[in-house]
Specification:
A 7-stranded parallel sheet has the order 1-2-3-4-5-6-7. It is an alpha/beta fold and 303 residues long. It is globular and about 60 Å long. It has a single domain, classed as TIM Barrel. Helix content is 48%, strand content 10%. InterPro entries: Aldolase_TIM (IPR013785), DeoC (IPR011343), DeoC/FbaB/LacD_aldolase (IPR002915).
Length: 303
């Protein structure tokens, strides 16, 4: 597809009915579930968490502690599932890989000048290759939102293609920073752009900009992956990230996935939750269901 054809396709996508999307998201979020289903939902949500530390003060010790929690979220209960991935900066990938050896937990790494996405392409590719060489199984790249908002859709597309190539065997998650994209039309457009460029996952946010993940934005992205799969046969995952803090929030997202994309997306392979602070609430609610009492917020280790 030429650049002009790509632009024509993306700009020709149907507009999003924002009021309709917001009403549908609110309606789905209001659904209640039975206690037995809640227990299953909590374990599923835990298994979908990408446990993350992305601070300038990150240390090898902090990453090792996070990896220990990822593998054994509640050391007193071996029945608690492990999380899906641990996400760190590229220079700490090797530490995480060593700490998670034998657990089956994926090491993800933000790359491509996270969180701004503003760097020369060669720097982004070098960042990506270094993380993959250190053992990252997933790369979370950020798009150049300035280029996208300026209408340079081809540049954004070509950068994703180049990063996808640099990932080699690693999966590519493409972060949109939807809080900066202004409209749901832009969310739909960038979702299709990223999927056509080879993204394995599309992700709402870096967690550094507000608003981060929202139900309406995630609904639009889920519709996009559903329609893309119907059109091409290729399945792409979705990851809302940032602002998902409670078990109630997480379950709302699981309902949204089931009712929009379908049950096939209800697995860590195709849906993730980028919300490290969420894990402790999931663990608290899980213990409440099994014991009848809350353990308290200080029972589990802080991330």
């Amino acid at each position: 597809m030429s650049g002009s054809e790509l632009r024509a396709f993306l700009l020709g996508l149907p507009g999003v009915d924002q009021v309709g999307v917001e009403e549908r998201a609110a309606r789905l979020a209001s659904r209640s579930i039975k206690t037995s289903a809640k227990a299953e939902a909590i374990d599923l949500a835990i298994s979908m968490v990408d446990l993350t530390t992305l601070e300038g003060a990150d240390t090898p010790g902090k990453v090792r502690a996070l990896c220990a929690k990822a593998a054994h979220p509640d050391p007193s209960d071996p029945g608690v599932p492990k999380v899906a991935a641990v996400c760190v900066y590229p220079d700490l990938v090797g530490v995480a890989v060593e700490a998670l050896e034998g657990t089956g937990i994926v090491v993800a790494s933000v790359a491509t000048s996270f969180p701004s996405g503003r760097a020369p392409l060669e720097a982004k590719l070098a960042d990506t290759r270094a993380a993959v060489a250190a053992g990252a199984g997933e790369i979370d790249m950020v798009i150049d939102r300035g280029a996208f908002l300026a209408g340079d859709l081809v540049k954004v597309f070509e950068e994703i293609v180049a990063v996808r190539r640099a990932c080699g065997p690693a999966h590519l998650k493409v972060i949109f920073e939807t809080g900066e994209l202004v409209t749901l039309d832009n969310v739909r457009r960038v979702s299709w752009l990223a999927m056509r460029a080879g993204a394995d996952f599309i992700k709402t946010s870096t967690g550094k900009v507000a608003p981060a993940a929202t139900l309406p934005v995630t609904l639009v992205m889920l519709e996009a992956v559903r329609d893309f799969h119907a059109a091409t046969g290729r399945r792409v995952g979705v990851k809302p990230a940032g602002g998902i803090r409670t078990t109630k929030d997480a379950i709302k997202y699981l309902v949204l996935v089931n009712e929009t994309a379908g049950a096939d997306w209800l697995s860590p392979e195709w849906f993730r939750l980028g919300a490290s602070s969420l894990l402790n609430d999931l663990l608290m609610q899980r213990r409440k269901l099994s014991t009848g009492v809350y353990s308290g917020p200080d029972y589990f280790s802080l991330d």
